[in-house]
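Model: Ready when you are.
Researcher: Fold this.
Model:
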Amino acid sequence: MNRPRRNREEPGPGQESVWDYPRPPACVPSERHVVVRVGDTVVADTRAAFRVLETSHPPTWYIPRGDVVEAAIAPSRTRSTWCEWKGAATYWDVLGIEGAAWSYERPTPGFTAIAGHLTFYPSRFACYVDDERVRPQEGGFYGGWITSDVVGPFKGGEGTWGW
């Protein structure tokens, strides 16, 4: 049985531990520079994102629809998923990449700030926070964005589903 807190990485100066994030999650505004690219094409660029912070997960960054290139996105036929905290997810195809982004069009009351905002799987795009290339959360299901200012261990990889 995994005991993630026993292996908790201690955050250094300017870092956060995902084990200090709340459960249920928090929705926190950010003025950091967030950019999503496909090759040389900028798909999203903002300084008005929201981070969703949840225990054991790296942050997921939600970008206002107005800061996403509208011509780059189209509703996806990808099956919707349900988050116990945020509600039903709507998936988006991005420049032909199926189901590569998602949003909560009618989120639960605690997450109305991100209604209509999009987030992108960093495993499928070049995502940046303040010019730092984001690493994807392991496992393929979750879409957390790992940067040098966030430490784990992170849920998502093999052996972590029970966290």
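Researcher: Now this one.
Model:
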Amino acid sequence: MHFTTLLLTLALAWPLGPPRPEIIRTWEPPAGPYGPGHRGLDLAAPPGAPVHAAATGVVTFAGSVAGRGVLTITLPDTGAPPLRTTYEPVTPQVPAGTKVTRGQQVATLTPPPTASPHCPRSCLHWGLRRGDTYLNPLLLLRQGPSRLLPVTGVP
């Protein structure tokens, strides 16, 4: 299934909010597997904020990676290998193997590690992958292009 067609079939939502969270840092694709870049979005939120599944899927990882809590949800019927969304730093509230629905609370945001802060303030790092390829999570939200409306009645 082509990625654009796939996006039209998914129903996704922001993992934080409402309201729509502020994006502190955008996705910056790396030039190579170990190159510099930013492999997701950083969304502003206070520690303890509820984190919701952006899409219906199955929790395939809920645990700690390098001292940070991480949750991964695999999205069924999204091709081979399937798409996976990741959330960190969090305290997972559902174990691996749990089926979750879009919008269901799956974790709470934890304070950023003090040794190597990822964000200038508390944030959720939201990622998207297909296999070893990192993708921009904003592609999942089906945000159309900006459109300017004509201005009338202005001298």
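Researcher: Key takeaway?
Model: The radius of gyration is 17 Å.
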